[in-house]
Amino acid sequence: MLDENALRYRDLGPIDCSTSINLDKLKGKTVLVTGGSSGLGFAYVKAYSEAGATVINADIKDIANDVKLSGVHYTNCDVRSWADQKKAFQLAASKSASGLIDIVVANAGISGNDHFLMGLDAADVQEPDMRIVNIDLIGAMYTIRLALNNFILHPETGSTNKCLIIKASLAAYVDTLPSYGSAKFGLRAVMRALRNKDYCRVNLVAPWFIHTPIMTDEVAGVLGAQLKKQDSDFAHVEDSVHCVLRISTDESIHGRAFGIIPRQHAKEGYIDLQQDEFKKDDAVMRHLQAAVLQVSHRK
């Protein structure tokens, strides 16, 4: 039986992102990353591997053949498929001596044109392509549900030693496009709901625009020029990696969201966003938040 008060979220103030990280804590850990063959996902997989963890990469394609990483196991996985994800978690559990998957990173996601807003002037409006929502939100929720299942089946390990990292986007915090924004905002809601349970530590990372290898030079050039006109810039892959490693190794971090941002705003390239807590002078919402955690007519 879970004690849901044991890891109940408490706002203890922002996390100091300038302190050192002890990567030795990752040696021997079992980690599952969705979408780990390219972009930020690959950077996470590589970092965990180099720190001595066993890593399961669940993606629709494997890492390039010329890349050799120690302790990394690939499984073909379309995150829209419950069966594929279940197979990935079974593989990860089989690679752990105890069966516990220590760290799960719900990373897989896509972006693109928002079909929700296309063809709105048609006499016979068509059903929109909802792949962004299905992959970025529904797929991530499959990952999260399977992670919670694995965590709950291993009560012998304390909740603070079980780590769930949800990769969203700063689109969850700023006005943007409906499909991508709603998917990422939905993940923010999931994190906030789960931080009040005793399943595991749960945190969220929200990257700004990042020039990863999967972004073509042409796109990077256009986007980079547009950002420059707005006195902004790209955030850095290595800063997102550092943030994820910090969350993975610091058992005191729980229920927080981190923005991966241009270094002009923070030298570490990431900050505790402090956007998921009601301000002390917001008495109404603080009261309603406390109340809703104590009442429910649903199971």
TrEMBL record:
User: GO: which molecular function terms?
Assistant: oxidoreductase activity
Gene3D superfamilies of this UniProt entry?
NAD(P)-binding Rossmann-like Domain (3.40.50.720)
Q: Which residues form the signal peptide?
A: none
Quote the PROSITE patterns the UniProt record gives: ADH_SHORT
The answer to keyword Lyase applying to this record is: no
Listed A to Z, the keywords are:
NADP, Oxidoreductase
Please give the coiled-coil regions recorded for this protein: none
Q: Which family does it belong to?
A: Belongs to the short-chain dehydrogenases/reductases (SDR) family.
Q: What is this protein called?
A: Uncharacterized protein
